[in-house]
Amino acid sequence: MIRPPCSALHWHRIGVSAVPDGLIGKLAPGPLDIIGDVHGEIEALESLLRVLGYAPDGSHPRQRRLVFVGDLVDRGPDSPAVLRRVQGLVAAGRAQCLLGNHELNLLRDVEKHGNSWWVSPDKPMEHPAARIGAADKHALHGFLATLPLALEREDLRVVHACWDSAAVAAARAVAPGQDALSFYLAAVDQLRERWQQGGIWERYIAEWRQHARHLTDPDWQPVLLDAMATVDADSQMANPVSVLTSGAERRAPAPFWAGNRWRMVERVRWWNEYADSAPVIVGHYWRRYSEAGKAMMDKHGPDLFDGVAPHHWMGARQNVYCVDFSVGGRYVERAAGVPAFHCRLAAFRVPEWTVMHDDGETWDIGPPG
Description:
The chain is of the alpha/beta class. It has two domains: 30-163 and 274-369, Purple Acid Phosphatase, chain A, domain 2 (4-Layer Sandwich); 177-266, no CATH class. The protein has helices at residues 42-52, 79-91, 101-108, 116-119, 134-144, 165-172, 180-198, 200-211, 226-237, 240-246, 330-336, and strands spanning 24-26, 32-35, 65-68, 95-97, 150-153, 156-159, 249-258, 261-267, 280-282, 320-322, 346-350, 354-357, 362-364. It has a six-stranded mixed beta sheet with strand order 4-3-2-11-12-13. Helix 6 packs across helix 10 (240-246) and helix 8 packs across helix 9 (226-237). The radius of gyration is 20 Å and the shape is globular. 43% of the residues are buried.
């Protein structure tokens, strides 16, 4: 049996930490290397830093700085090592880092696929992964709680999943000293009140009790569950933290099977509606580097990059770029014994407008637009 999808109604937290520059922070000036989702792949990260020209202490001979788009953790072999490495780079002033949806789950202490190393370190995992001790967890939780939701400067914006003007405006309005988790939980409380007053939550629970066993049955003849679709869509779109860290979603025209369950909402290609002139760099979306990499199908349905070449800008103004090349899928490739990884780690280089992979391969993307 699966739990109701809205597990956000149950939460746990260790403490509150202020975000130094606010939830929408200032992006560092000068040349940058913006690194996509690392997902616990410490060797790929160290290889990428070397080919980018960084010294072990994170310094660069050309005074470049690093920016991590979030999702540092889960699925890979050593998430604690990645967190400690990035924490050290940020503390030394060599890097900035955003909060991704996987870090948000760690802050909430909610178990998701691949994060037992943090939430339940004694629990068996489907693939080998370093676990975390209590002291390390406390220290790293404090680091994660200080991460902003987005970074910007006049010529560039960086966010984990989606630059949405309403969500960004809401995050800007957050009182000084409030961290992303507090902001997230406040939105959850408002949603819970709305659902309960409108009777949606009662209908949702009734649907879940009737259909929970069907939701993980691929042979079920699905029907669109109205209250479940409403709750799922609201949980995403009415919570600014969810929008910025997980992207835009909407009610699907019909249920679809993905990630071993039937889903009532689908992801949206928000970049096709992005109208601002400032380019945006994101991660999150498991971009496919090669045809072989497309076997790592996304749990949220069809490939959002269908029709978009692997190293091209996206969107109506051709000024949104996803730098996540699915390195989080390497655990599957290891299990399959592939001779060479198709899932990559990459960095987007500004102002060169190039992308470099962890093996040193470089692509000239060209300026936005």
